[in-house]
Amino acid sequence: MSNLRVFIGWDSREDIAYQVARRSLLRHASIPVEVVPIKVQELVEKGLYTRTVDPLASTEFTYSRFLTPHLAGFEGWALFVDCDFLFFGDVARLAQYMNPDHAVACVHHDYTPKEATKMDGVPQSAYPRKNWSSFMLFNCAHPSTRQLTVETVNSETGAYLHRMQWAKDDEIGEVPNTWNWLEGWNDRPATGTPDAVHYTRGGPWFENWQDVDYGDEWRAEAAACRAEGLTQD
């Protein structure tokens, strides 16, 4: 793999989380990476996103993430990742999971949240294949992935999209959980770090949510983002 397109969900309430995810991903990458924020307001202005606001949606990109293949021109491979990630791994190594027979590849979590709400007060919903869609390696030209048209993303149910019902079960490849390591759920590795830490319950950008795994590393990355003038705060 000579380069990779990465689409990161952006939420106006969590710009620093996006900046940390972006900076940490680029800092560890050994290949050229094009990072594109998925900003719902820009998609609305372009006529690509027309869904009404879902009160149960935990982020501004809850549904717009599925426009990734469209935004990539339905060509090649593209990665979508939530903004609440901290990267330690080199995304070049994801090439080994790019099986042309698969429409998408992700970590196959069997996850049931312990909390009823996230740190920001948003309900913590439980559903099959939860967190699978928080890190998706899309085979954009695959026939099943091509079903994620603008019309489909704007009209289909959350279950259809997030449970990946647009692909057959055997078209959903598997990525090791080190690439979507759920803070507060997965055990810390005996040595080293996960490839990507996912602060799915809430992260250190919330004042009262500092005592988390790899919190010091996240705060150091955030400090570097601020020093470089990358943040909006």
If you had to describe this structure to a student in words, what would you say it looks like?
This protein is an alpha/beta fold. 21% of the residues lie in helices and 15% in strands. The protein is built from 6 helices and 9 strands. It has helices at residues 15-28, 40-45, 68-71, 150-155, 158-162, 215-227; strands spanning 4-9, 33-38, 77-81, 85-87, 104-106, 135-139, 172-174, 181-182, 196-198. It has a 6-stranded mixed beta sheet with strand order 2-1-3-6-5-7. Strand 1, helix 1 and strand 2 (33-38) form a beta-alpha-beta unit.
Largest sheet: 6 strands, mixed
The average pLDDT is 92
The tally of helices reads 6
Radius of gyration: 17 Å
- Helices and strands, in N-to-C order? EHEHHEEEEHHEEEH
- End-to-end Cα distance, whole Å, is 35 Å
Poorly predicted spans = none
Q: Roughly what fraction of the amino acids lie in strands?
A: 15-25%
Furnish the topology, listing elements before pairings:
Layout: E1 4-9, H1 15-28, E2 33-38, H2 40-45, H3 68-71, E3 77-81, E4 85-87, E5 104-106, E6 135-139, H4 150-155, H5 158-162, E7 172-174, E8 181-182, E9 196-198, H6 215-227
Parallel strand pairs: 1-2, 1-3, 5-7, 8-9
Antiparallel strand pairs: 3-6, 4-9, 5-6
Helix pairs in contact: 1-6
